[in-house]
Amino acid sequence: MQSFSRGWQFLKQAWQMASADKDLIKPSIYTLFAGAVVSVIGIIPIALVAMFFSNAGFVGQIIMVLSGALLVFAEFIVSYIFSAMTVYLIYGYLSEGDGRMDKAWEIVKRDLLDLATLAAASTAVNALQKLVKGQGQKAGRNLLASLIQNVWTEASYLILPAMVIEDINLTDGIKRATQIVQDNLLLVGISTVGVKAVTALIGILLGLTGAIIGSALGYGIISLAGGTTVTLGLVLGIGLGLLVFFIFVMIATVIGTYTLTAYHTCLYLWARDIEKADVSAESIAAPAPLAAVLDL
Questions:
Q1: Which of 95, 84, 259 has its CA nearest to residue 161?
Q2: How many CA within 13 A on the CB side of residue 187?
Q3: What are phi and psi of 275, to 5 degrees?
């Protein structure tokens, strides 16, 4: 319970930062729209490939798999570009009192190749996870696939700040993240602040709220229009209901994306300071949002 409470406190601290500097939250919003555009554009060639090569045997399957992998790769690049911006904006805010968008864009341009390699690695892990899971519903395979996904997701949250803040490539970023974990520099932060649980709960609550309001609105419009037999009313009701639902989902996504990125950026900065000072975690002040939660 204490872990959840601290996670909630961190979320409030992180959003106080965003309230003080609106630039911090902008990349998390941009990534939603950019990701949607990439997905819509990317699904068209995949649909065409499925249409023309679905009966082409093994070659057709390879083409479809590669097309899907390219879309996943593109989605990861979009996500990492804007996450990298968020990392640098938070770093700038904590170190200089101001997260500047122009500097964040310059960092993204500088690290674009490194971000692409991270996206490629994540695409490979995604493919491995699906391969392990297979088409069956075996508990052991599902558990291993989930473990692979969770471990890489957590690793990428630490690799990204290392690449952005220290200007290193993917290989060195993995080494830095591994070193930090091996030295237990993040043990206190990870074990005592339940940020994931808080963001997950908020996502569920907002999703349910959106579903309830969207359903009520859609049903009301359909009823006022004369029931399901009236095509225009049916289309408007379903369309507006889904729109309301997706707005709530988008809000939940922005909250989760920004909060988790802020959390891992603060953890990374704290671990780096501890490593440099070569002292215990209690002797080094954590970044402001994390310090307020851990009472350090």
A1: 84
A2: 8
A3: -60, -45
137 three-state secondary structure: coil
| Single-letter amino acid, residue 278 | D
pLDDT tens sequence across 185-207: 555 455 456 788 889 999 999 99
Q: Which amino acid is at 135?
A: Q
User: What is the distance between the alpha carbons of residues 6 and 73, in angstroms, rounded to a whole number?
Assistant: 35
DSSP tag of 100: -
Q: Nearest CA to 283 among 206, 170, 185, 166?
A: 185
DSSP letter at 22? G
The pair of structure tokens assigned to 258 is 């920004």
User: Would you state the structure tokens that stand for residue 202, as one six-digit string?
Assistant: 């908020």
What is the average per-residue pLDDT within 158-182? Answer: 88
Alpha-carbon span 68 to 127, nearest angstrom = 10
Instruction: Give per-residue pLDDT as tens, 32-61.
Output: 899 888 888 888 777 776 677 666 666 667
Instruction: Give dist(CA 277, CA 262) in Å, integer.
Output: 23
